[in-house]
Specification:
The protein has 547 residues and is mainly α. The chain has helices spanning 2-36, 39-46, 50-78, 80-99, 104-132, 136-167, 177-191, 205-227, 233-255, 269-299, 304-328, 334-351, 361-388, 395-435, 440-453, 467-503, 508-512, 518-521, 533-536. It is globular.
Length: 547
């Protein structure tokens, strides 16, 4: 009876820990689509340029990408519960600062604080699940729940923003994050027990500094290059600094006795594949959400709720497709699910290249549903494969690294595709103005304003009787830019699919076997995955141990 009661209590505690982890990742991802569909309203309210608008999204994603590995190490060294609570606190403070913002700089500050909170939440939520569920085969089901919570946050974000913006100021989109974070903080205090890595990890300051400088400099260079010129001195300097810093990061990690990111994990082809897929896919998808939100707001002139309802189709379809994906991982090879999902995403992006100002809801809807199904087939097996690709004691590092690559891609997405959108749209604008009958000095003034402050700045001009023609030309120009972005995003996703087909292969364990005897194989850490990629996740990476 006592054994049964203890087992029941253990199961209840594990369920509670998984629920807290899901709530944590929900809080971490809620600002992404909530802010994405609110960008047109923010641009109008704060009178920002396209480059400044890109930084609204990147101010959140950039610190998340730059500090997520450090947060994972802090959790391993000082306790995951403490880092989890710190993440919730920073998320609440960041939302409060953004809610009170009356200029773009304060909004950036609030977004950055919330991004730091998300950086703390993402690796610790997965590490909490890994600690509570040491059996990696069973863990896949719970990681599937974690992924569904992530997608649920992306799903409700547009609805929240739409309801808020139809009745209140844009800044109130941040309100929900505050009570959610504080509630989770209060519940976590008595519920969670602290856990640390058992192998004496230490903080890796050289790795952290070089990683943060490298990611920040690269994203800054891409955003400013798109807004100004990639040949300007500050852009060239930023990109050069970014490359140098990332090279220094690799050198620092190779020499560190306790690296923030053990580069040996990349000897696992499966882990390398998931890292590349996460980076490339999220670069395309987050950039796509940024571009599509501008299309709905500036071209189709939709309200935020209508735009949110359309974007809602993607995460809802992803949840519907992702729920069975977690259960099918032991029957269907991860390589097959991920590749099919990526091909569906690429196909839907290419199918959207024929959108125009008059495209109906139904015509857009099926494309977004297909994209969501593809995303659902990718998210769960990609995350579970990354965690299962390394020994159990490196699961926290693997989850943090996979999320870091995902967030670097998410940071670069709005920057890269926003730059492409602005460049292509401004280049096409003179031709569309001429087609609309707007010529001479007025056309020159409009083009000059668009080059200086982005397409949105034209709305603030006195356009007189030709305002209708100008807005139509602006819409056509933005559609030209969007089509280029969709083609680039689809190409990136196809590259990710090639990475999956090439690197997610079954024979990895067989290749490792000759180098290690049966006795050595038995010395793998408890909970380290075994078996093949297709069934339950990749095997232990070749060469993960230090010589």
């Amino acid at each position: 009876m006592n054994v049964t009661t203890a087992a029941s209590g253990s199961t209840d505690r594990r369920a509670a820990i998984v629920a807290m982890a899901c709530l944590g990742v929900f809080v971490a991802y809620l600002p992404i689509t909530t802010v994405a569909v609110s960008l047109p309203a923010i641009q109008r309210a704060l009178n920002t340029s396209t480059a400044q608008l890109s930084w609204v999204q990147d101010a959140f994603v950039l610190p998340m990408a730059a500090f997520i590995l450090t947060a994972g190490v802090f959790g391993d060294v000082h306790g995951r519960k403490k880092v989890f609570q710190a993440g919730l606190f920073l998320s609440a403070v960041g939302a409060l600062v953004a809610l009170c913002a009356h200029n773009i700089q304060t909004l950036w500050a609030g977004q950055a604080l919330a991004g730091l909170g998300s950086a703390a939440l993402l690796p610790t939520t997965l590490a909490l699940i890994s600690h509570a569920v040491p059996d990696f085969r069973e863990r896949g089901k719970f990681i599937g729940m974690w992924a569904m919570a992530l997608l649920a946050a992306l799903a409700v974000g547009p609805v929240i923003a739409g309801v808020v913006l139809d009745h209140y100021s844009w800044r109130w989109i941040y309100l929900l994050s505050i009570p959610l974070s504080l509630l989770a903080l209060a519940v976590a205090a008595p519920l969670l027990t602290d856990s640390r890595a058992p192998h004496g990890r230490k903080l890796d300051w050289p790795g952290q500094i070089t990683a943060a400088v490298g990611v920040t400099a690269l994203v800054y260079g891409v955003i400013e290059g798109g807004a100004d010129s990639f040949t300007s001195a500050k852009v060239v300097a930023a990109l050069a600094l970014g490359i140098i810093a990332l090279v220094a990061f690799v050198v620092a990690e190779r020499r560190s006795a306790s690296p923030m990111l053990d580069l040996a994990v990349f000897r696992s082809a499966a882990f390398t594949a998931t890292a590349l897929i996460a980076l490339i896919t999220f670069l395309g998808l987050i950039g796509f959400f940024f571009v599509l939100s501008l299309y709905f707001g500036m071209v189709q002139q939709l309200g935020t709720l209508e735009a949110g309802a359309r974007l809602l189709l993607v995460p809802v379809a992803a949840i519907v497709a992702g729920a069975p994906a977690g259960r099918l991982m032991h029957r269907v090879p991860a390589r097959r699910m991920i590749t099919v999902g990526l091909l569906l995403i690429a196909g839907s992006l290419l199918a959207m290249t024929n959108l125009d100002a008059g495209t109906s809801y139904g015509s857009i809807a099926w494309r977004l549903i297909v994209l969501g199904v593809g995303l659902g087939l990718v998210t769960t097996p990609m995350t579970a494969t990354a965690v299962a690709a390394v020994p159990h004691h490196l699961a926290g590092m693997a989850s943090a690294a996979n999320n870091a690559f995902r967030q670097v891609g998410g940071a670069l997405g709005p920057a890269v595709l926003g730059a492409l959108l602005s460049t292509r749209a401004v280049h096409a604008l003179p031709g569309h103005l001429a087609d609309a009958g707007v010529t001479g000095s007025q056309a020159h003034a409009i083009v000059a304003t668009a080059k200086e402050g982005g397409l949105g700045a034209v709305a603030g001009m006195n356009l007189g009787s030709k305002a209708g023609q100008v807005y139509a030309a602006l819409g056509d120009s933005l559609i030209d830019g969007m089509r280029l972005c969709l083609i680039v995003a689809a190409g990136l996703v196809l590259v990710a699919a090639v990475c999956g087909v090439t690197l997610l292969r079954r024979p990895q364990q067989a290749a490792a076997a000759p180098a290690r005897g049966a006795g050595e194989a038995q010395q793998a850490p408890m909970g380290a995955p075994t078996g093949n990629v297709g069934a339950a996740g990749p095997a232990e990476p070749l060469g993960h141990r230090r010589a």
